[in-house]
Design a protein that fits this description.
alpha/beta; Isopropylmalate Dehydrogenase; eleven-stranded mixed β-sheet; 12 helices; globular
Length: 303
């Protein structure tokens, strides 16, 4: 029996409509998935939408979009409303939610008070969603997300590290690991080299790790980011916890051999998404690669 999923088509001026339709045209996806798309109908139809592919919940616009794809207030409003409605339906109907890319600048132009999907999901569900990424045997999660590097020392607390690590452990169990083996990245180069390059490891990361170890969680570290990623690629750990955004995304995108999927764990429903942006430069040209969106849909169905 096919499973039902919700898909928000993302920014109508970006590649979201295109990769949504291409994903639903994939034979494997079609064989296992019954989709409900929430999005702007004219851009979806230009991308190839037909009623046999999915049910469409249309979000109409009375405005004319610019001819050249770019950040746009109305596009931001529509993509935001799509996600809000997707969250409402996911909660009410207990369905997984797949979100195509939005543009953060468009959301700002539309007056949206959230920097992205994750922040909106947390506010709407009152749950501390964990940002994590999966690509084949590579799995990582973030302690902090969209913050300036200069703010990390202030934001990174023992309690936040503990909470994120615990959420990651539970998420890995949901992915099928009965007793996940995890490791933690250090914040500073060489794991601070015994305090020469900072005190965050000694005062915050190590105490959080020790607390979790006492609870029976298989967690090691903190280790320097480069050596830890090398160990993870070679299968030593089931997942690694990174202190900040680029500490996860840069190595992951270099090491990944399969499409990368973003998961928000810890919500009342599963949310997945592709790990790329709106790609305005190729939007509307039928050049977008749907592989990450295809995998996001399949991950939503199989988790």
């Amino acid at each position: 029996m096919k499973k039902t999923i919700l898909i928000t088509a993302g920014d109508p001026l970006g590649i979201g409509p295109e990769i949504t339709i291409k994903a639903l045209q994939n034979p494997h996806v079609r064989s296992v998935c019954k989709a409900v798309i929430i999005g702007e109908p004219s851009t979806l139809k230009r991308a190839g939408f037909t009623p046999h592919l999915a049910e469409l919940i249309p979000l109409e616009t009375t405005q004319t979009f610019p001819a050249t794809p770019q950040p746009n207030q109305e596009a931001g409003r529509i993509s935001f409303q799509a996600v809000k409605l997707g969250i409402k339906w996911a909660l009410e109907k207990n369905l997984p939610l797949v979100t195509a890319p939005i543009n953060k600048q468009s959301w700002t132009l539309a007056g949206v008070p959230f920097t992205g999907h994750t922040e909106l999901l947390r506010a709407a569900t009152q749950a501390d969603g964990l940002m994590m990424f999966v690509s084949g045997n590579l799995r990582c999660a973030l302690v902090t997300e969209h913050f300036a590097i200069s703010d990390l020392s202030r934001i990174l607390t023992k309690n936040l590290i503990y909470t994120r690590a615990k959420s990651f452990y539970l998420a890995l169990q949901q992915l099928g690991f009965k007793k996940p083996k995890m490791a933690v990245c250090a914040l500073n180069p060489h794991a601070s080299d015994n305090g020469k390059f900072g005190t965050e490891e000694k005062n915050r990361i190590i105490p959080a790790v020790r607390t979790l170890q006492k609870e029976g969680i298989l967690l090691e570290g903190p280790f320097p980011c480069d050596s830890l990623w090398a160990a993870h690629v070679h299968g030593k750990y089931d997942g690694i916890l990174c202190m900040y955004h680029d500490q996860a995304l840069l190595p992951l995108k270099l090491a990944a051999r399969k499409p990368i999927v973003h998961l928000t764990a810890g919500l009342p429903f599963l949310r997945t998404s592709p790990t790329h942006g709106t790609a305005f430069d190729i939007a509307g040209k039928n050049q977008a690669d749907p592989s990450s969106m295809v995998q996001a849909v399949l991950q939503a169905l199989n988790t």
